[in-house]
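Because discrete structure vocabularies remain unfamiliar, we first show an illustrative case, written as a sequence plus integers encoding its fold.
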Amino acid sequence: MFRRKLSALDYHNPAGFNCRDETEFRNFIVWLEDQKIRHYKIEDRGNLRNIHSDDWPKSFEKYMKDVNCPFKIQERQETVDWLLGLAVRLEYGDNAEKYKDSTPDGAKNTDNTAKNAEPLINLDVNNPDFKAGVMALANLLQIQRHDDYLVMLKAIRILVQERLTQDAIAKASQSKEGLPVALEKHILGFDTGDAVINEAAQILRLLHIEELRELQTKINEAIVAVQAIIADPKTDHRLGKVGR
């Protein structure tokens, strides 16, 4: 998951890094701060370097706040990915002249017309700011998390288009005016022996039918929204292939 960024930062074991191993994780954080991020002065890194201390999680939580990491300490994978993104940006800033003319191997043959046709292609999905922004929007709109941030972004777009546009809000705010209903035309199917109770039962049945129709409409909308996400195949534009 982190191999490319770890390799770019010259980490000693990019392929075997395991952020779930507590000792390895703590050593990695110390290495990242000492070698790449360098947010603290050297004399202020003592608590973070003391990886065997029981208070290390508190020191790490403070460090996350100090570097403005948007994730919580329990969200380890997201935190590691964000810190790696920060380190890569700082590394590029320190060596801008070295990297400014470099071009990815697969980018030389990229069709610029295709790029401009799909705005999402131009997004840097590994950018920590992009991930933090998508996560914040998903939390605000109560959209379920997904490993692919682009999938979450598309779900956000669908929700906004269908629910939060001016037309959608205006339509939802409109009061519904009901049409007169002739109860005598609707057969109840049973007789309670009381005309008033029979009429009340007919009204309840009609209201229940209306609720079922609204439920079916919402189910159909949910199906359409899900299909819009899962039916869109992932495309590797560098290789010119569609599919996983």
Q: What stands out?
A: Strands lie at 235-236, 241-242. The mean pLDDT is 76.
